[in-house]
Amino acid sequence: MADRFAIGLYSGGLDSTLALNLVQRLGFKVVAVHFTTPFTVNLYGKKKKKLKKNGFIFKKLFLGKEYIELLKNPKYGYGKNFNPCVDCHIMMIKKAKSLMEEYGADFVFTGEVLGERPMSQRKDTLRIVERESGLEGRLLRPLSAKLLSETIPEKEGIIDRNKLFAIKGRSRKEQFKLAEEMGIMDFPHPAGGCPLTEENIAKRVEESLKHNEDTIFDMILLRLGRHLRLPGGEKLVSGRNEEENNLLLRLTRNKGIKLSVKDYSSTYLYLRDANDEDTIKEAGRVCARYSSVKNKESVEVYYWNKDIEKRKIIKVKPYSEEEVENLLI
After folding, report:
1. Which residues of 291-307 are buried (b: 16+ CB within 10 A; e: fewer)?
2. For 4-182, CATH number?
3. Domain-by-domain residue ranges, the chain?
4. pTM higher than 0.70, yes or no?
5. Hey, which of 82, 130, 155, 203 has its CA 20 to 30 A from 148?
């Protein structure tokens, strides 16, 4: 008998891990689709290798510019902060649907649990996602399936509804019990989930979009360091420690202006799209504030574009603590 395929959304969390294993045990060859955005971190290679070792097909899809455009005006609005949960799920399900033909899959499934999340996992929003994604009758939520309408695969007998579950609500007890029964021990404990639900990140995203800073690179930087806006409207990103400084230098190697204090420990600073001397001096004052010589009257600051060997020096007076606080986003 030829393999039957199913496309499953995989976040790396417990619910999606359970859903993958459950559908696999029902006899399907499972394609585990992991979505990334400019705000999320890729799954570690170790987890990818483990999935493949356990018989899953791993597929990673990046939601880039189209995802950023969605953020600007989501049809179904935002959650508590800047998280367009319903629209985001619709986009991911549509992408998963496009893989059905490639693999000849019978359905798409997710690890969603009815009532677990206040915006995206209500019964009405689950129906909206199914309808808007064009997957009516072909979108299975195996962990809560017995509480939802029968899907086409269930009606056709491809899936035994009796082997699905009726989990609901925010308690994780049933999931932990099911994981134990399945022998699944390596899974992350519940966490905050989407970065856009975090107040600080949400504020940065909204502020960045208002200034038309909407490239994929702009969005990636929003999770890194301190973010500041100069009086003239220019954007600054400052590393808070050695790790962030090194990462900031790598990411911005061929972009914008970089600054650091000469001869003393300091932050590395990235100045977006500005080359005039006055703006560079303003950025230098911020850089000097985040240094070991922040209380000196005059500080020498390096600045350069692509080639650090061609760096130049400006002399600036460090901003006061209050002045810098007023620039923080």
Report:
1. bebbeeeebbbbbeeee
2. 3.40.50.620
3. 4-182, 224-325
4. yes
5. 82
